[in-house]
Amino acid sequence: MEITTILSPERTRCVAPGLSKKRALEMISELAASQCPELPQHELFESLMAREKMGSTGIGKGIALPHGRLGRIKHPIAVLLKCAQPIEFDAIDQQPVDLLFALFVPEQEHAQHLATLRTVAGKLSQKELCRALRKTEDNHHLYELVTQ
């Protein structure tokens, strides 16, 4: 699966400092809802929060993969945030997070969900890519880097 099939430039953002975990998840939900009007922002946010209640999606090294399942979507949708200042996220390594790659996946597509998470985690395990993502302040450049 190519990242370009789930992520768009409009859902890729470099964000200003001062975010909390909750505000970052709200922003992710807002960006997804703005591009997919059939998905209410509150449903997107609730799906992310429900998953976070089971345990943090902070996978370590400053990266989080928040995700939620929704019955209303037919294909995965992604949002990428690069925070100017790392935020507390209760990550497994107890380090703050500055790269959030969020996924919304169809509720019934469990295998696809796991495959998509593996693809994204593999991409973000590339140290050089993460270094470049963290250096950019331009939304379009952020998108270009992650989709190369």
Automatic annotation (TrEMBL):
InterPro entries according to UniProt: PTrfase/Anion_transptr, PTS_EIIA_type-2_dom, PTS_Nitro_regul, PTS_SugarTrans_NitroReg
SUPFAM superfamilies: Phoshotransferase/anion transport protein
Pfam families: PTS_EIIA_2
Transmembrane segments: none
Residue ranges of every copy of the PTS EIIA type-2 domain listed in the record: 5-148
Protein name: PTS IIA-like nitrogen regulatory protein PtsN
Species whose genome carries this gene: Ferrimonas pelagia
Taxonomic path: Bacteria, Pseudomonadati, Pseudomonadota, Gammaproteobacteria, Alteromonadales
